[in-house]
Amino acid sequence: MSQPLQYNPPARKIIKTTCAYCGVGCGVLATVDEKNRSIQVKGDQSHPANYGKLCSKGSALAETVTLKNRLLKPSINQQECSWDQAINEVSHRFTQIINDHGPDAIAFYGSGQLLTEDYYVANKLMKGFIGSGNMDTNSRLCMSSTVAGQKRAFGSDTMPGSYSDIERADLIVLIGSNTAWCHPILFQRIRVTKEKRPHVKVVVIDPRETTTCDIADLHLPLKIGSDVALFQGLLHYLDQHNHLDQAFITEHVEGSQESLESARDYDIKHTANLCNLSEAALNQFYQWFANTDNPLSLYSQGVNQSSAGTDKVNAIINCHLITGKIAKPGMGPFSLTGQPNAMGGREVGGLAHQLAAHMDFATPNDIDRVARFWQTDNIAQRKGLAAVELFDNVASGKIKAIWIMGTNPIVSMPNANKVRQALHQCEFVVVSDCILNQDTCAEANVLLPAAGWSEKDGTVTNSERRISRQRALLPCAGESKPDWWIITQIANAMGYSEAFPYEKPADIFREHARLSGFENHQEGRFRAFNISGLASLSDQQYQNLLPIQWPVLPSTAPDDVNGTQRAFADFQFTTPSKKAHCIALQYHAPVNATTDEFPLILNTGRIRDQWHTMSRTALAPRLNQHKPEPFVEIHPDDAKRYQLIDGAIATIHNQQAKMQARIVVTSTQHVGNIFVPMHWTSDLSNRGRVGPLVNPVVDPISFQPESKSTPVAISLYEANWHGFILSRQRLANAITDYHVEVPNTDHYRVELAHTEAFASSPQQWAETVVQSLYHTNTDITFDKLEWQTYQDSSQHQYRAAVFYQQQLEAVIMIGPIPKLPERDWIPQLFSQTEISYEERLALLSGRPPNGSSNVGPIVCACFNVGENTIIDAIQTHSVSQYQQVGELLKAGTNCGSCVPDIKRLIKKHT
Amino acid sequence: MNHSQEQLVVIGNGMAGMKTVEILLSANPGKYQITVFGAEPYGNYNRIMLSPVLCGEKDIKDIMINDRQWYTDNNITLHAGPTKEVVSIIRSTKHVIAKDGSRVPYDKLLIATGSNPYLLPIPGHDLEGVIGFRDIYDVKKMVEYSKQRKYAIVLGGGLLGLEAANGLTQRGMHVTVIHSRQTLLNRQLDSHAGKLLQQALEARGVNFKLNVQTQDIKGDTNGHVNAVHFSDNDTLPCDLFVMAIGVRPNIALAKTAGIHCDRGIVVSDTLQTYDPSIYAVGECIQHRDNTFGLVAPLFDQGRVCANHLAEHGVAEYFTLPTATKLKVTGINLYSVGNFEEGSNTESLIFEDKALGVYKKIVLKNNQLTGAVLYGDTRNGPWYQKLLEEQLNISDLRETLMFGPAEEPSQVKESVQ
Lengths: 910, 416
Known about the structure:
Number of helices of chain A: 29
CATH class of the largest domain in chain A: Alpha Beta
Structural class of chain A: alpha/beta
Shape of chain B: globular
Structural class of chain B: alpha/beta
Shape of chain A: globular
CATH superfamily of the largest domain in chain B: FAD/NAD(P)-binding domain
Helix content of chain A: 25-40%
Strand content of chain B: 25-35%
Number of helices of chain B: 10
Strand content of chain A: 15-25%
CATH topology of the largest domain in chain B: FAD/NAD(P)-binding domain
Number of strands of chain B: 27
Distance between the termini of chain B: 39 Å
Mean pLDDT of chain B: 89
Radius of gyration of chain B: 23 Å
Oligomer: heterodimer
Number of strands of chain A: 36
Strand order of the largest sheet of chain A: 5-4-18-17-16-6-7
């Protein structure tokens, strides 16, 4: 077995890399202190995605480079082992299962967090050599409707535009995208361009009145899932009002007639009815779209995560095609990808119906072509199973072994409890990950420690087709290894060493680039994804590769640093006829409608400061403060109807599962809809996983789950008591029915609620809890702790603070209702070596002693600026513009995602 | 003498009487020609500051309120000293007679004769070295003893007794406090706070003998106390025996004059006695069955009485709950209202043992009825205000224990 490359410390201390999170793909400048294994990050001013800006998550990357909660050693059935043993075990079991049950009894489930090189090797091993199509990825959950829609329209999964279109568009339409929170840096670019060019209109199409609406000229709070109707209505309007570009249609579009025909019934009245919108609002949007030469339609998961996801994508593209407003500067349909390498995964063929390099099982000769390139006679002959079906097959036992790479399906999949059950009974589960305590690891037979962001090295592709290098900053932690290395070792052990000769990521990248150009001709099998211009990069050139947009043809590369800004600029699409396709569509409501029993629609999505299942972002204390707990947003009318109280806990349930979340009553929600963030895992919250409730309904074309529309019921959780604990030591286990952990810098916050009354007294309970915290601590013993208590027995209030010498160790607050003292001020006391007399006496009130300041809830996560500090600045300096707050406090000047909050504060306090 | 002026005679040169005069002087200056009789040979001093004087923290001149010059400046005739003690009030002819025979007529008479320490009538109570703790004379005596003698016994674990014990300990004596109950300051503290106080005083060297009665005081051949014998058969050596078990209204003069008295001189809500020309304030009175020992109500009485003497005639006196503080440096305690717990009361309790802080707030029908603060008394005046105003504290309850949201406005601080 070949040893992995030794890590060579970089000559320079400052390394350019890319962010680990969303699909914007921001460039990051990391200053590395290898000796202390620490880094500092800032935005890379030369990166064309972000020009030096970073959002709150990106700004906190340095805090996630910790060995806390890292998976550092391989193990087999919870027994630590050597890499050789682990590799032997995996290859042996895989080989055995293939021999006994055939290749389709094995599956790989990858992730948009994998680098292109990792992905390529995994896909090659499964589809090319094991010989099954069963390689799918969590991109199925976020981008597959776009993949399918673009393929239907353009003949390939190719997004035509560039981020620079934002600065050139005169109408920006944001569809199903809370850009402000999910793609903050692009939102910043939109905000800035609108400020510089005030005539630019922004339309937000989203059932929720999200923070993104802050810059909207028009918000269309459409009924969940009715996007197809809305855009069919637009298509009809454009037709009726003679806004078609007949010349463009004739030259470059097929199917327009059928498509327009299909939209015939969608007059404004009918459409307004279907979408539950006013005719006037619709009319306004349609007029703007019709009368703007360069409309840009940015869309994201509100479009994709739907049983009509593919149709929604095509409904948007149709409108751009028949008006010819596509593939030109400042206009066109523009998919915002969710993950840092969602697009890279699609390029290598990470989805089960894809083969490799934009070739697939359905296109004649592609299988043969790839087989010849890979020199294999065992290539899969048909597409594999998409995520939901794949895990169904794990559950039914048809799939007997699965390898999960860098993702957490027990949290993120629909009907996630079924996924947990499926993995639990699966014969052989391999998990390669960088995180120790993610839910899925618990079900693994073999755990393989993977290199994490800051250690791995390769390329990613962002939403605008831009390939950027993600570079290693630090040596791999513990015994962890890059994913490509792990997969290569298994492939070698399974006997495919000739086809997997890789020694470094550059070897893989060159092969991937070569494959993209293999038999790729305008006159023959023409694929838009072609980076053969990068196929002969030297190791050094690869190391220094600047961000570049594909396609990159040999004629332009490698010196052209820009690549191709606009795909299809010549309007030659990747269909056999070279014409784009308009698709005839009909609106269908989400598959599962509400019933008397489940009268509300559950919508899911992201919050500003967390990423996916929080396994990394929750390591950065400041990212846990914006929204510390799982929550459910509900309209005041519904809250009244279901007797829910703001700040209390709700139980949400359906046939599949139930969960609990903190209630947020807000009129930004539609009546009849509720919103729950997707992030919480059972590691941090014992009842906060929303995945188990999400219906496993999928789009019939893309097989993407309908994660944004599940009928549920809601009720108030009538806990006997509520409470929270702030403690320096971590509670080993959940000790109450409702338990949410919020890691902070030097302490943990736990929000609690319990159904049963205390067995004896809150005091005794608190003592038991503290005893358990100091059970294993040798320096501090329970009897050395000093207690402060406050009791209002008839109101069932109990509060305690525990000190060791002058230092605060723990605070426990308990009451009969959710309203408890504030948690804003106490946390800072944990960092003090000494607590003053005044602070100590004020502590259990949750308020600082008179005369000292409480910064309040953190508003700006980038610069850690609290609400009270901002209010104070607003009042002291008579602030009227949010920019002034930035000048005074820096708040809002980095990622800008808190600007709407700052504006709200200015409005309220002037 | 200005003949248009009425004559006001004040018997008693203490804090209550002089507070009344002070207010009267500003409320209706020149209405009266004022004559003051005082048995002590001083101007008017702040009796509640005697403890700091005993401790040596303050000097007598520090605690003078009005020196003789003040009387002169305000045109008040002061008759001070033992010979000027008023011995009778002749109501029929409206004049008073002093020990030295001097007679002063009055139109209005204000009796402010205060109280006398209660001396337990046990065998030996008349021995040399058995004293009360009431005036400068007593303090001087205690200071003298502490310079020459060793053993002091203080009878009474109330405010005065503990202050005396602390002072004598600081002056180097071996002091034992005798208390008939288990809890010190049992009128002001609950048993928990009482225990904390005891521990704090013990740490300063004060000894305690609780739950015990004093049987008799033994004397030497010179008629000086030398030992005390207790109900538990214990005997302790004793050079100085300080009785601090309370005071009795000084009503002898009023009673002799035929003014209606019960435990004290009975007054109406305007501080008028049964004789319409005669008013009374301070520790000598009995108002709606209450007698008084702390300074705050005395000042309130002075305000009301002055109002009527000035013939403004609008004020009424009513007794407010009074806060107590112990004047022992380094020990903070504050107690106000009724903190007895009953079936319809609710208690909020805060404790930080290591800090030596204990606080209890008692509520009834969402109103504050009492508070005991030990160790941290800063919110005391606020609680007293809430108590006086009978505010509904439902909205404050969450943070009541931790004080007002804003810096407390300078609420008048009541002291003993």
